[in-house]
Structure formats: structure tokens, C-alpha cells
């Protein structure tokens, strides 16, 4: 007898089979990032703020790359749903070229203009001076990072979520071990502080890239395409169809990430203590968001494959299921973060002022998980997998640039405390949820993009 419940066992089993490996990968990455901040916290607020500013450059890179891979994943998942392997490969070809182009630009900026980039986020000369060598070293790994993210996205979109998870786990364990050795000078190495953290990060990312590609091609996975398979069939008709859907995603992630990065500029107007507090809270927040992100990514993969197979009725049914499931998980994470907040703060060695700011900010971040869960499943999970990328782009960017960014800078300019400026930032996700939910119920987000592509 089939399970007719709204959140059926079969649906939950399928969703979590994809979501758990992705969430575990993100959890360990976020946990290691938190360990990094804890270790660097022993060096002082300036070093925490410096890493936070330098990581804004990496944040911009990864979010734009996420836009590149998310746009490609719409096609890869739908091509895979109808078992069109040549379609998967040529989509990967375009994704690889775009990822290389973006990463080359960011590499040049990090290597040759690190002080200029860091000065965008902090007016403190000590923060800029401490962060520049870190950014220059970490920037040397941006190209291999881009290629790793592109291949991982292709693997996940074709149903292989374990390989990206395992190579990411290897990377974070290498990063953690090298951090202990190089930051504090263990095993005969000199204590390198921030420089040691940067070297550890670069080495870990290079190892992840090498191992991932070796395994993909040695196992001859579906995504193990030759250069000819990647680039020989990029004809005009395919490229027009591809970019019509993916350019809004890329534009979306670029504009959104720049807008979100400006939040750090607004926080920086409040001082180095505020920047350190935001860095700590962002690291902890990411840790509590991993399951929400994992299930949202599972939503994108499952819905995309279902649409590609021609079952649009099933895609709509499962889309509504995810619209309930993801925010429910977000509510649970909100409660958990509130409960864990005092214990988490004991891990960080910071000044009393920074600790007080962090306690306030972390409470607000916990409540913001719920509206952020709605916005994530609507934009990343449903609209993009259904090919409704233009609506997703407008909703995602307009709420940042027309609502949250102006409010954040207005609050900082008027001398609002950190918690009040953060509330201005939170308006972004609340507006997205209010506008996005009716869109899902209207069914206008659901499109089969690969039905007529051979």
C-alpha cells in the first residue's frame, strides 16, 4: 500500500539521501571554519577581523561560482532526468569556461591588489595590513577552487553526492591539521599566525582538486568527459537556450553577493569590534544552516530531475512538500542555536565588548534562520530547478539592493548599534518569503527546459 501522506516516507527518504551527504560536507566545512576562527581568536580581534574581510573576497568568488554552477545544474539535472549524457557534457563545458574566467579575475585581484580590496571592508590600517598577506596566499588557490566547485556540482546533479562530500572532508581535515601546525608552530615549524592559516587553506584546496579529478576520471563517472565532449557541441542554438536561463542566475548571484558583501562595509563603519563579532556570528550561523542548505540543494536536484523526466505534476507536488519541510527544519535550527548560544561563545577568546555584541547578534541570527529557510528553498530549490530564473533574479537582487543595503547603511550612518543594523539586513529574507510563497502556489515557476533540446 502506497504512503499517501503529504510528507511521505518515500519522499523523505529520497530527499535526505541527497541532503545528508551535502549537509555533512557543509557541516564539516563550517565546523572547520569555526575552529579556524577559534584558533585565530587567540591572536586577537584584529586578526579575526582581517580574516573576516579577506574571506569577503572569497565569499564573492564562491557565490558567483555558485551562480555559474546553479545555472548549469538546472540543465544538468534535467538532462540527466531524461538520460541525455551529451547534453550533460556540453553543459559542463560552458560551466567550466565560465568558472575559469571568473576565478582568473579574482586571482588577479587577490595577488596584485589585496590592500585595495581589504580597504573596501575596513578603515582600520591594522586590519588591512594583517589581511593582505593572507588574501594574497589564499588567492593563489582560487582557480583550482573554481574547478573543484564546478565538478562537484556536476557530480551532485547526476546523483553522485558522496564523492564531492568525501573530497571535501579530506580538504577540511588537511586544512585543520595544517592550521594547528602552521598557526601555532608545532612539529618543528615556526609559528606563522595568519600566514600559516592562509598556507594551510591553499594547500587543502589544491589537494581537494587533485583528488576529486583523479577519482572522477579513474572511476569513469558519467561526468568524466573528454575535452571534445565538453567543448565540441557548443552550437549557437544550445548556447542561446543555455544563457537565456543561466544568465539571470549568474547575474542574480553576482548582484546578490556584492550586495551582501556591502553589509560588511556597513558593519565596518561600526568599528573593528563589530567586524570581529560579525565574523564569529557568521561562522556559527553557517554551522546551523547546513541542513537547511542541504535539503534546499536536494530539492533543486530532485525537482530538476523530475521535470526533466516529464513528470511536472510530481514536481509540483514535491515542490510544495519542500516548501513545508525546509522552513520546519529552519525552525528546529533556530531553537537549537538559541539553546547552544552561551556554550558556543565560551569557545572564543575575544574582548568583553566583542563578546557582548556577539551574544546579542547571535540571538537575532537564530530567529532569522526561519525566513532565510523560506527564501532559500524558494529561490535555490524551486524557482531555479523549475527554470524560473528571471523571477528568482529579480526577487533576490531587488530585496538586497532596494531594501536591505539602503537600510543597513542608513542605520550605520545614524549610529545604530550592531544589533539594529543587523535587523535592517534581516529585512531581505522576510520580503523574499512574503513575495516568493505566492509564486510557488501560482505554478508559474515550473518549466521543462530540455524537452526540445537534442
Structure commentary:
- The chain has helices at residues 9-41, 45-81, 85-112, 114-119, 125-139, 142-157, 162-184, 194-218, 227-231, 236-268, 272-288, 290-308, 312-345, 352-383, 389-413, 418-442.
- With 454 residues, the chain is an all-alpha fold.
- It has one domain.
- It is globular, with a radius of gyration of 21 Å.
- The two termini are 38 Å apart.
Proportion of β residues?
under 5%
Number of helices: 16
Order of helices and strands: HHHHHHHHHHHHHHHH
Structural class: mainly alpha
* Domain module tally: 1
| Biggest sheet character | none
Overall mean pLDDT stands at 85
Task: Please give the structural blueprint.
Blueprint: H1 9-41, H2 45-81, H3 85-112, H4 114-119, H5 125-139, H6 142-157, H7 162-184, H8 194-218, H9 227-231, H10 236-268, H11 272-288, H12 290-308, H13 312-345, H14 352-383, H15 389-413, H16 418-442
Helix pairs in contact: 1-7, 1-11, 1-12, 2-3, 2-5, 2-6, 2-10, 2-11, 2-12, 3-5, 3-6, 5-8, 6-8, 7-8, 10-15, 11-14, 12-13, 12-14, 13-14, 14-15, 14-16, 15-16
